[in-house]
Amino acid sequence: MRLKHYFCNKKLKIMNRKLLFPVDDESSDIVKRYEQFLSGTAPGYFDVEELENIVEYYLRKGRTKDCTKALDLGLKLHPNNTALKTKRAKIYLATGDDSKAFRILDKLTESNDYEVVLLKIEVLLKLERSKEAGMLADKLISEESDDMDNVCLDIAYIYLGQGDYTAALQLLEKGDQFNDQNAELLYELAFCYEQNDNFSKAIATNNRIITIDPFANEAWFNLGQLYFALQDFTKALEAYDFALAIDENDSLSCVQKGHVLFQLDQFEQAIEIYQEYKQMTSYSWQTDIFIAECYEKLEKYEESISYYRFSLATHADNYDALTGIGICLLEQEKYAESMTYIRQALAINKDAADSWVYLAEGYVGVDDIDNALVAYIKAIAIDPDQPDTLMAIANICLERMEFDLAIKYYLAAEELDNNLELVNLFIAVSYYKNGELDKAITYLRKAVVENDTAGSLFLELCPEAVNLNLLD
What pLDDT is stored for residue 4 in this prediction? Predict the structure, then answer.
């Protein structure tokens, strides 16, 4: 089962239900007895199944040296056992020695053993021998089995591990034909649809899981994530609410609900949910940023700054918090203080185009236009797709009577966004001031169509044109 999401930092995990040894008390007891044997505090004899469990336990923990040591003991006690030889191949796979893994698997006489065949498929894919891997997969699927849906699922897990979502999808769709009630398979099927940008089928598949099990918290959560990605925030909110009704301690659904409420401009409600999430998790510095952003949207800047400071107190190199404080101070027209925080943010991330814009606005606030222009141009150099910033640069050039430059930047802004407020008016003004009357008239006419006050605004900026009747 996969817990899939878009906006939270949780590692995706592929679980092979059929082949992984369960992490249970029995396995832990066996490992404990084995480690006591190694320390000389207990006698020990371990049968093949026990040694397999020990090796798998260490593999899950990433302790490959301990795996190898346990396996060496196993092969000493059971020198001809195929299952243990297979584990050697798995260790080589875990350490990236794919060729050695294949040589071991290729020598095993029990070539039809299910686990051996699956491992061969995985090794062949890693060795980029996909055609041979496909032939082995087809052979497994062609064999009669009452468990064919899980066979398809096991092979699909291998392709998923290689990031081949198209091949995995084909296998999962085939498995679904054998058993349309396999919820574990459906989770992976929905994931593959999403990876292949088929969101409608991903949603439909999660709804099938919910039909099988209405209390499937993960499926409700996944639905919320899919609707979030599609910006259907109302449906996303409904899905997260169902997930939380099933498990009120589901922290991921809780924080995502907060994000949805933020997107719906329900900032007060979002703050309440973020406060609930804060009680569930140790990552309070990040949650404080979410809360601060809500207060910022509510224009409660002092409250916002307080939460940004809470975040900084536990996470000093916090670009978002430093930037957030800078923005709140800008809104309060505390320009010099604002720039102190923006500079600290830029020291952490000098390639943040937005922060260069904020710094420029701070400079404008203290009438340091030269440095403002430098900061605006730095922002554009990092990210040219900023029509508002281009307009700001053009405005400075216009005020400085650098009309050619003003025209250049206004036209660049208009090319990116021809709906910018009054852009055609300012282009007209710039052309007029530059002595290009025909072009000024062309853009002024556009401006008047868009805004019936454009004519009077033009005359305010260019009073000397009052007797020219430019719009006649």
Answer: 33
Residue 326 in tokens: 């800078």
Give the angle 333-335-340 at the CA atoms, nearest 5°.
Answer: 140
Please report, in angstroms and rounded to a whole number, the separation of the first and last CA atoms in the chain.
71
* Token pair belonging to 227: 């609707």
Total residue length of the chain:
472
Residue 464 lies in a domain: yes
How far is Cα 305 from Cα 295, in angstroms, rounded to an integer?
A: 9
Structure tokens belonging to residue 282 = 């140790």
Residue 10's nearest CA partner among 194, 252, 241 is 252
What tokens appear for 93 in the block? 């796979």
Residues of the chain with pLDDT under 70: 1-27, 42, 109-111, 470-472
Q: What is the pLDDT of residue 10?
A: 29
What's the pLDDT at 355? 97
For residue 432, give the CATH number of its domain: 1.25.40
| Torsions phi, psi for 442 (to 5 deg) | -60, -50
d(C-alpha 321, C-alpha 314), whole Å: 11
Domain span at 412? 397-472
Spell 103-132 as b/e; 16+ CB within 10 A means b: ebbeebeeeebebbbbbbbbbbbbeeebee
CB 338 within 8 A of CB 329: yes
Q: Which two tokens stand for residue 271?
A: 């703050």
Angle, helix 301-314 to helix 284-297, in steps of 10 degrees: 170
Is residue 217, in this structure, part of any structural domain at all? no
Spatial CA neighbour of 60 closest among 109, 27, 38: 27
- CA dist 217 and 220 (Å) reads 5
Number of domains, the chain? 1
Please tell me the distance from the alpha carbon of residue 306 to that of residue 253, in angstroms, as a whole number. 26
The answer as to whether 416 is a domain residue is yes
Burial class, 435, CB count within 10 angstroms (exposed 0-12 / middle 13-18 / buried 19+) = exposed
| Spatial CA neighbour of 434 closest among 462, 454, 413 | 462
CA of residue 196 relative to chain centroid, distance:
16
Cα–Cα distance measured from residue 415 to residue 389, given in angstroms and rounded to the nearest whole number? 13
Question: For residue 143, what pLDDT is reported?
Answer: 83
Residue 163 is predicted with a pLDDT of: 92
Q: Is 423 a domain residue? A: yes
Q: What are the pLDDT digits (tens) for 23-40?
A: 444 567 788 888 788 777
Q: Which residues 6+ apart lie within 8 Å of 121 measured at CB?
A: 133, 136, 137, 155, 158
List own/partner pairs for 38-43 with CB under 8 A and 24 or more apart.
none
CB 326 within 8 A of CB 343: no
Residue with tokens 């004899």: 45
Helix (H, G, I), strand (E, B) or coil at 1: coil
In this prediction, residue 472 carries a pLDDT of: 61
